[in-house]
Amino acid sequence: MTRIGFADHLFLRMHHGIGFPVYNQFLWWFDESIQREDLENLRDNLSDGLLARRVDASAVPTARERWVNSAVSHPLDFHEHSIDPSKVRDWADGRLDSDIDPETGLGWRLAAAPLADGGTVLSLTASHMVADGGALVSAFRSANSGTDQRRLDPTAHGLAAIGSDVKDAAGQLLSAAGWLLNTAVSALPVPARSAPASGAPRVRPNRSDVTTGPAVGSEWTSPHLVAELDAPTWRSAAEKWGGTSNSLFIAVLTAASGAAGRASIGDTVQWSLPVSDRTDTDTRSNATKIVKIDVPVTEATALDLSPVRAICKSAFGAFAAKQAAGHAPVGISQALVQMLPDAVVARIPQPRDGAEGLASNLGVLPDDFTTVAGVRARAVSGRATFVGADAEFARSLDGGLTAWVCETDTSVTVTVHAMDPDRFPDDRALRDHMSTALERWDLSARFW
């Protein structure tokens, strides 16, 4: 029996209304037409894989909900009429629909539209509770290549299910009790205990109030862009300036934040870098950990990427060492949080860690992900987004940019959402700041 994980549970709460639902979406842009019959077959294959799941409540209080196989799925959403290539992003936004719901078993949807120039755009959208980026890639590859589809373990019934729930409830209670005991002991006054020496505080980004610019009201939605770049040119720029594709990606985002006024030269901004620990036989919906790095904001003439590369290498090394040592995550007990009702969790203060945003590198995508029915995509983009998030919610996050980079042998896409309504009031502002950042390394993009 497969229990929902802590990250799954957080995304489920978002669907319940504590925040806004989060969806993951991949977009494929093909310069050639793909037949509807081939897309129907792909949808059928996806419905036989690990995306076909729904949440099933446990019978015992404090036990975690179960993942069970879903017998239902959305039909292929095929746009009968061609759309103009300039409307691809608008069409993609329209695929983020509230009827994609992990509790009904309809947690994902495949959609496609012919383009007026003869191409095809394809979308795969899923609730983040159902699948993180790695899970979507894995599910699509299996469905697209015709390999055997993995499914969840068969669901236990009757006494077996109740017994499993009792065992899980006991484990959750034991974990929460252990955390409460450790917290109580650590709070006791111990005269001989010396407080750890505190290091110098990290330089924080400039967060001064906005005094100029357009007023942003309740109608604001998160600006969004997809920048498509030539892959050999991108990789050449990274190599020329002593970096990698990942360090160039992070440097561009840092420069864009600086250009927007979210940080000043000499400040340090923090990026959250998702790291997948998914295995080939993994059935988890979310198997992502976060590594955080502090990156200095530098002059526009500073092109050397080796400092960013070194920062990333050090952070990933430290993270791997902690994982190998089995260090538990700090903060409130995950088991305890999963037991609490939504009304209580909604009142728990959410810590602000000062992170500037998220920089997710999905790497070089394999052929069985970028090619459908023998047609190779010109480019592929990926993103995660809050659906319905308004200016008030964005300000509460205190974040700037969330971004994803996808690579093929011919193209690189940098997909960005801005979560600062005052410095990124609209798509044009986001595009201008990203263009300025790319030009710093002599890069230019085709914007979708």
The largest β sheet comes out as:
7 strands, mixed
Number of helices: 13
Helix content: 25-40%
> What integer value in Å does the Rg equal?
23 Å
Structural class comes to alpha+beta
Mean pLDDT: 88
Overall number of strands: 17
Strand line-up across the major sheet: 10-9-11-15-16-8-17
Shape: globular
The ordered H/E elements are: EHEHEEEHEEHHEHHEEHHHEHEEEHEEHE
Whole-Å distance between the termini? 43 Å
Strand proportion: 15-25%
Which spans of ≥5 residues are poorly predicted at pLDDT below 50?
A: 192-203, 207-212
Describe this structure in words.
- The chain has about 450 residues and is of the alpha+beta class.
- It is built from 13 helices and 17 strands.
- It has helices spanning about 5-15, 35-45, 90-95, 135-145, 160-185, 230-240, 245-260, 305-325, 335-340, 340-345, 365-370, 390-395, 425-440, and strands at about 1-5, 20-30, 55, 65-70, 75-80, 110-115, 120-125, 225-230, 270-275, 290-295, 355-365, 370, 375, 380-385, 400-405, 410-420, 445.
- Strands 10-9-11-15-16-8-17 form a seven-stranded mixed beta sheet. Strands 5-6-7-2-14 form a five-stranded mixed beta sheet.
- Strand 15 (about 400-405) and strand 16 form a beta hairpin.
- The model is unreliable at about 190-205 and about 205-210 (pLDDT under 50).
